[in-house]
Design goal:
The chain has a domain of about 70 residues. Helix content is about 45%, strand content about 15%. It contains eight helices and nine strands. It has a four-stranded antiparallel β-sheet with strand order 1-2-3-4, covered by helices on one side. It has a three-stranded antiparallel β-sheet with strand order 5-6-7. Strand 2 and strand 3 form a beta hairpin.
């Protein structure tokens, strides 16, 4: 069932898989599955860092040589199974002497051991092949919506932001492509960030004890930022991450510190 003005497109999970599964994403941020047991069932996925994510286990086709080897191993197992069945039938015959029964029992035990060995060999080989063919697909739902319904974006706009800061509101109208810098500024308007800033300000909390940077270094870093120094080079110079530099640049961190004169 679709809502009014809700649009659906198929999710591209790649090619060359044997899974008979198709997933679709909607402009409302819903995902539905089509396979042998589902004809469009809505799936919610799981959670990661507050975002909703879908995960699928896909399998590449089996190599023909591997398939032949598995068939040979299966035939070997079936041969042992038939042999032990035949021996057991002979043991049940009334004309079989005690001496013959003793020999047949020994033969049955030997074949049983061969059967167990063949079974373990097949299971280990099958498991190894399955692991080799397995591909794990995972995608954040809000990014799937943006990639399929918001085509107009700049090359450096690599982040999908939630306009209302609700990570579970994945409707296309609530999403926008942003640059990392734009997203940092957007995050400053989050009610949670504003409340946290206010709390730290009231408690007298300061970043200095939790960073590699000192107050003096931050003032100098801000001076270099104002002069147009690249974020990447500053991260290397001050031995911090580019994300930390961007957070300082957008005043998410050390917002009350002014640049050196």
């Amino acid at each position: 069932m679709s809502f009014a003005r809700e649009q659906w497109v198929e999710i591209n999970m790649g090619e060359g898989f044997v899974n008979d599964t198709r997933l679709e994403i909607s402009s409302f941020g819903r995902v539905r599955a089509f396979n042998k047991i589902s004809k469009g069932k809505i799936i919610k996925g799981s959670m990661i860092n507050g975002y909703r994510i879908i995960r699928q286990k896909l399998f590449k086709p089996r190599d023909p040589q591997i398939a032949e080897t598995l068939q040979q191993m299966q035939c070997k197992y079936m041969t042992h199974a038939k042999n032990i069945s035949a021996i057991k039938k002979t043991l049940l015959k009334k004309l079989t002497t005690p001496a013959e029964k003793n020999i047949l029992s020994q033969q049955a035990e030997a074949v049983r051991l061969l059967l167990e060995e063949a079974k373990k060999e097949y299971a280990a080989f099958y498991k190894k092949d399955l692991k080799k063919r397995t591909v794990y697909y995972g995608a954040l739902i809000h990014r799937l919506v943006a990639e399929n319904f918001i085509k107009d974006r700049l090359e450096n706009q690599t982040v999908v932001a939630h306009l209302d800061h609700d990570k579970l509101n994945n409707q296309v109208s609530n999403l926008r492509w942003m640059t990392p810098e734009e997203n940092m500024k957007h995050q400053q308007t989050s009610p949670h960030v504003i409340a946290d800033k206010q709390k730290r300000k009231q408690s007298g909390f300061y970043d200095a004890g939790f960073r590699k940077l000192t107050l003096t270094k931050v003032m100098f870093l801000k001076k270099l930022l104002n002069e147009g120094k690249p974020v990447q080079s500053l991260a290397k110079q001050f031995k911090i991450t580019e994300t930390q530099v961007i957070r300082i640049k957008t005043e998410v961190n050390w917002g009350s510190v002014e640049a050196a004169k």
